[in-house]
Specification:
This protein is mostly helical. Helix content is 61%, strand content 0%.
Length: 212
C-alpha cells in the first residue's frame, strides 16, 4: 500500500505485536460498516475499513519477512498528521472540506471527532472552526481558528481566518458599538463584515467578493 501502515493504525514502528493487534481491533470496531448502515458515511466507513485491513496485513507481512517501512519508498503518502510544507493547496481532509461545502456539518464533525487527539493538526482545528462559523457560533469558531493559527502561523489559510475573525470581533465589540452607535451602521461596518465573510468563503474554495 502507498500509505504508511503504522500511521494508518496510529502506532509507531516500535509497537509490539500485541499493540498492533489492539490498535487494529479498536479501529475495526469503530469503522466497521455495520455501524454505518443507512448512514451517508457508510461508503467512507467501508473505504476506511479497507485501508485498516490493508495496513494490518502489510505490517504482518513486513514483520514476517523482517523488513520495515521506509517513507522514501512512499513519498506521495500523507496522513492526518503530516502536512506538505510550503504547499497550502494540499489538504489532509478532502472529504471533510467537501462535506462542509455541501453543508453536511454533522457528517463533517463526525469524521473530525474520529481523529485521535494527538493527530489533530492545524487543519483539523481550522476545519472545526469552519463548521462552527458556518453554523453561526462565532465565539467557538474564533477559538478554533486561533488554535489552528498557533499550530502553523505560516499557513495563509489559517492566518486569514484568524485575522478576519479578530477584525469581525473587534467591530462587534461593546466598546465599538458605544462609540459608533449614534451614527448607525457605517460603510466601514459593512465592508468589514463582507471582507470577513469573503475570507472565510475563500478558505473553503468559494468567493463572495470576486475582486478580492
Amino acid at each position: 500500500m502507498n500509505k504508511n501502515p503504522y500511521e494508518v493504525l496510529g502506532i509507531s514502528q516500535n509497537a509490539t505485536d500485541q499493540e498492533v493487534k489492539r490498535a487494529y481491533r479498536d479501529l475495526a470496531k469503530k469503522y466497521h460498516p455495520d455501524n454505518y448502515q443507512n448512514s451517508p458515511l457508510g461508503e467512507l466507513a467501508t473505504e476506511k475499513m479497507k485501508e485498516i485491513n490493508e495496513a494490518y496485513d502489510e505490517i504482518q507481512r513486513m514483520r514476517k519477512e523482517g523488513t520495515s517501512y521506509t517513507r522514501n519508498a512512499n513519498r506521495e503518502y500523507s496522513s492526518y498528521n503530516s502536512y506538505n510544507s510550503g504547499n497550502y493547496t494540499h489538504t489532509n481532509f478532502p472529504d471533510v472540506r467537501n462535506l462542509i461545502n455541501s453543508r453536511r456539518y454533522d457528517d463533517a464533525e463526525t469524521i473530525l471527532k474520529g481523529v485521535p487527539e494527538e493527530r489533530r493538526d492545524g487543519e483539523w482545528y481550522f476545519l472545526y472552526g469552519m463548521i462552527y462559523y458556518r453554523r453561526g457560533f462565532h465565539d467557538n469558531a474564533s477559538r478554533f481558528f486561533t488554535k489552528a493559527y498557533e499550530k502553523d502561523p505560516s499557513n495563509p489559510e489559517f492566518r486569514n481566518a484568524y485575522e478576519s475573525m479578530n477584525r469581525q470581533r473587534a467591530y462587534s465589540s461593546p466598546e465599538y458599538r458605544r462609540t459608533y452607535s449614534s451614527n448607525g451602521c457605517s460603510s466601514c461596518d459593512v465592508c468589514t463584515a463582507l471582507c470577513c465573510l469573503d475570507s472565510c468563503c475563500e478558505c473553503m474554495g468559494g468567493d463572495c467578493i470576486p475582486c478580492c
